[in-house]
Amino acid sequence: MAKPEIVLITKADCHLCADARDAVERVTASLGLGWTEQSVDQLPELRERYAEEIPVLLVDGIQRDFWKIDEIRLARVLQRAMAQ
User: Is residue 84 classed exposed, middle or buried when 0-12, 13-18 and 19+ CB atoms within 10 A define those classes?
Assistant: First the structure.
């Protein structure tokens, strides 16, 4: 079973980011997966790329969601990625 790379891109003082963290944690925990977080505050290239879409969720380098994380869609995406 493949383990997808899950990255949540956030910024400081972002209420949507806090909600996104909770959603990603719930879904990944239910599937036994880990995830990482990157902040646009520390990586200017991310701020330039995703400035208007924060928070952004990447799965295996592909943008899968932004602003509000859809937990059902995320679970489906991750299950498909793990089946490959």
Answer: exposed
User: Which strands form 56-59's sheet, in the order they lie side by side?
Assistant: 36-39, 6-10, 56-59, 62-66
**How far is 49 from 53, CA to CA, in rounded Å?**
9
pLDDT tens digits, one per residue of 3-13: 999 999 999 99
User: To which H or E segment does residue 6 belong?
Assistant: strand 6-10
User: Which of 22, 6, 26 has the alpha carbon at shortest distance from 14?
Assistant: 22
Quote the CA–CA distance of 75 and 6 in Å, as a whole number. 12
Residues 6+ apart with CB under 8 A from 81: 2, 4, 59, 60
Task: Quote the pTM value.
Answer: 0.94
